Amino acid sequence: MKIIAGLPAKYNFTLPNHSASNGWTLAGQLTDTDGTYALATDLFTGDGSTWTLAIPSATTTSYAAGDCMLYVVATLDTTEETVLSEASTIEALGTVSHNRKMVTALNALMEGRSTQAYETLTTPDGESISRLDPEKLQQWLLFYEKRLATEHAARAAGSIIKTHQIGF
Asked: Which of 9, 146, 120 is nearest to 138 (CA)?
């Protein structure tokens, strides 16, 4: 799981033996070298055996960049079980590209998770993304997803700087 400090984070996972419909609740924590971040039970929502961990941007703002571990504990009455432990990464907001910010923001808007941070973001045409109709949101999302894919491909290929020498 990757969390970008200052942006909302959302993570879906399935726990067939620990479903919300059977009365299980989840709590968790992120542990890193700088401290431990408790994940409140209200950040976990369950629908059958599928769970969603949604961490708001107000919470991730305090997170320090670096590698960490996500631990999730399921509780039913007096029974507690660690049901998930996963290596995770927290990235500083400044290290996120514009394309990644826009994809994150556009996805959030399409899912109805608008925040004040997104109100200042605009399209290259100068339109505020928080005021776009669903069709335009989808168009801009595709635009930025393509740019992000190109960015990832370039990063995967390595930065190749060509030097040309010209003699006179």
From this structure: 146
